[in-house]
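[Discussion] Sanity-checking designs against the backbone

I'm trying to build intuition for which residues belong where. Below is a structure token string of 112 positions. I'd appreciate it if someone posts a full sequence so I can compare it with mine line by line.
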């Protein structure tokens, strides 16, 4: 009985590892395609298995969840610290952050 249980756990771990490898391959392909249709299809396929795209445009910047890629000045003080644009889409698999989104953040000042 113990041998069967160990084999079952090994099989489950192999399936988890294979899933993680396939997700990473999809993210790799997603980053390199220039076709909006392919991007959409890959994101839909990932969503079907529980991997969600993160585009935090309009949210308050949070360095624990977002990576700052740059800033853009704004004269609207209410926008300061808000994500202006997602430069690179992030991804989450359930509760696990696979990749933080890289974002541009509004900062106080006159736009140039």
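Best answer:
Here's mine. Compare freely.
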């Amino acid at each position: 009985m113990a041998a069967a249980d160990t084999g079952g756990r090994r099989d489950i771990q192999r399936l988890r590892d294979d899933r993680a490898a396939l997700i990473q391959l999809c993210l790799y392909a997603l980053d390199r395609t220039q076709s909006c249709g392919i991007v959409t299809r890959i994101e839909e396929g990932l969503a079907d298995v529980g991997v969600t795209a993160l585009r935090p445009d309009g949210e308050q910047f949070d360095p624990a969840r977002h990576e700052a890629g740059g800033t853009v000045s704004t004269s609207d003080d209410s926008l300061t610290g808000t994500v202006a644009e997602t430069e690179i889409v992030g991804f989450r698999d359930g509760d696990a952050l696979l990749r933080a989104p890289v974002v541009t953040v509004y900062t106080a000042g006159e736009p140039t």
